[in-house]
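Bug #77: duplicate submission created two jobs. Keeping one. Sequence:
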Amino acid sequence: MTRLLGISGALRRGSYNAALLRAATRLMPEDSTLEVASIRGIPLYDGDVEAQGIPATVAQLKDAVARADGVLLVTPEYNNSIPGVFKNAIDWLSRPSADIKRVFNGRPFAVIGASPGPFGTALSQAAWLPVLRTLGTQPWFGGRLAVARANNVFDDSGNLKDAAVEEQLKQFLAGYVAFVRRAHG
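Kept job's structure:
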C-alpha cells in the first residue's frame, strides 16, 4: 500500500485547492491512499517560539510527512508565487534543521494547484522547486497539473465537475504513485 500525504496551501474553507485535494483522495490508484493534512493553526515562524519548543500543530504535521511514502503539495498562487502561509508551514517543518533529513530527505514530492486565473498555478509550482531542492526532496517532474479558471471547474459545493480535469488529475496521480513506488524500490 502506497501512502501519500496531501497538503493544501490554502486556509480558506472554500478553496479551489482544498477542493482539488478532496477530488484527488477519491481518484487515487488501486493500492494507494491519500491522507489530507492541514496547515491551519501553524503559527508564523518565530525563532523565539521555536526556542520554547516546536508547536503541537507543527510536530503533528512533521510526523505525518515523515510517515508518508510521498507528499502532494496542492498550492494556490498568490502574486505569481508561493502563498506565505504555505511557505511558512514548510519552513516550520524544517526546524530544527536536524529534522530536515527525517522529514524531507529523499522523500518524493509532487506539486499541483488550481487558480481562477488563466495560467493556473504554473508560477507558484515553479517557485516551489528551489525550496524542494534545498530540503533534499525528490520532486516528480513526470506530470504537471495547473488547473486554470478553477471557478469553472468546480461547482458551488466544491465538487470537481470538469471531466477533462478529472481525467488529468487521475493520470497525474497514477504517474506520481508509480514514481513513489519506484523510489521506494
